[in-house]
Write a structure and sequence with these properties.
The protein is mainly α. It has 2 domains: 121 residues, no CATH class; 177 residues, Tetratricopeptide repeat domain (Serine Threonine Protein Phosphatase 5, Tetratricopeptide repeat). It contains 14 helices and no strands. Helix 2 runs antiparallel to helix 3, helix 12 runs antiparallel to helix 13 and helix 12 packs parallel to helix 14. It is globular and about 55 Å long.
Amino acid sequence: MTGLIVAMTILGAAVGLALAWPLIKRRSSPATRADYDLTVFRDQLAEIERDAAGGLLDAEAAEAARLEVQRRLLAADAERAATTPTADASAPRPARVTAALVACGVPLAAAVFYLLHGSPFQPDQPYAGRDIAAESHRVAGVGGQGQAQADPAQQAAEAAQKRDMEAAVARLEKKLEEDPDDIDGWLLLGRSYIALDRNDDAMAAYGKARALADGRPDVEVTYAEGLILAGGMKVVEPAAEIFRAVTEKAPFEPKSRYYLGLKKAQEGDTAGALQDWADLVAISEADAPWVPIVRNQIMRAAEELNIDPATVQMSDAARELIASQPPVLR
């Protein structure tokens, strides 16, 4: 009995603290879908590297997988940059009072409820008197049945998710029929089509956004990425032309510089790709989320060229660009 009371006291305190903690701690900015995507894509890149090192993926398949995940990571970073909210202040005093009431009141209420409706004086059942084999069999049976049903449930959830997305796409299509000049709406529709593997429809939607945007860099880059996707993750020349034009207009835009370097690598100009990526890292903020991706590409290119990546310096053009537009003026 004493042991039960001690255990209940500890559990009650733990539950009260768990409920009160969100009211006490400093509130941080809520995680966005883009934050989740960035984490997933980084994990996918690491998994690809492990599979390639273990021989599960050949060089061509590994490179194609890297390019697709890197494209998605860059897109997710752009989405996060556009939607990141400002962090909230710490919890106000009323919230702390509420936290104290919750921390104390929940365990107390649970104890009163157990005393009124439970069996606090029921003696323990000796371990020797229990049928452990029968209990283990019941537990194993429940676990096995749950495992057998996991796959159908997952399939049903995925099917429901796809239906929901198709319904959302249908609503967006109808909205754009009523407001065909919504550039961001066309971009969203294009991304939704890609998620549904409707690449031709995606390019049509991106094309309409591009026609309306009058050279807006992010729209141009999105359209060019669609061309890369349609080209089997090869940076085709029409996409490269768009990236060059974007770089002229917005020299700090990271995606265009990254893909231009990638085109050189795909064409066998590893040294040129290495220089482009070194310049991209040099002109970027140190904590920019794409920097680790680009550094990884630099390491691979340097290894291929059998040189020390630490010896690769930014070009004179990059140095002049930084001098003309330091970070505080961008």
